[in-house]
Amino acid sequence: DAKTTQPNSMESNEEEPVHLPCNHSTISGTDYIHWYRQLPSQGPEYVIHGLTSNVNNRMASLAIAEDRKSSTLILHRATLRDAAVYYCILPQGGSEKLVFGKGTKLTVNP
Amino acid sequence: EAGVAQSPRYKIIEKRQSVAFWCNPISGHATLYWYQQILGQGPKLLIQFQNNGVVDDSQLPKDRFSAERLKGVDSTLKIQPAKLEDSAVYLCASSLTMDREIRGYTFGSGTRLTVV
Asked: A55 pairs with which residues across the strands?
């Protein structure tokens, strides 16, 4: 199964951009890269996903390295509401289920 | 669009008692998942259903945990008897697609179980 490696924690200041890195050196050619986040006392919520090209949506941008062995989730202007645990996930064993690691705890300072 | 509904929101039981959690997925989502999230850890997948059939229950402690999804819609997860280490948040999720893109993966708010 493809594994992901993320920093345990990161800090940011409000209204500044945040770049959350993820390494996935054993990714297969057809694995999508998924990002979810979990706010305190809530279930995880979808942020963004992509395969090869960079992706943008209203929440964030996903920058995928050319060799696909790493990716970066970009929050363009962090707000206090973005404080959460961010998970970078690859499907388990090529299946359609998501297996979560420990993620990166993002703290946003006012 | 209504989200994934779970109940109860909180439950406190004594060890060796039984407990059941209920989940109603998003309409049209054929795939349903139960996760266990222990404090400070990421969610751990327990079981996956496709319609009313089990796709993967390799991580489900079958001596005490059981789950069913009758009629391919609602699902219940049961623990009998509960142990102290079962204290966790139990999350239900459903997804739209059964392909590698895994679109529409949506979680409920979870049931927080405390075993005393």
From this structure: A62
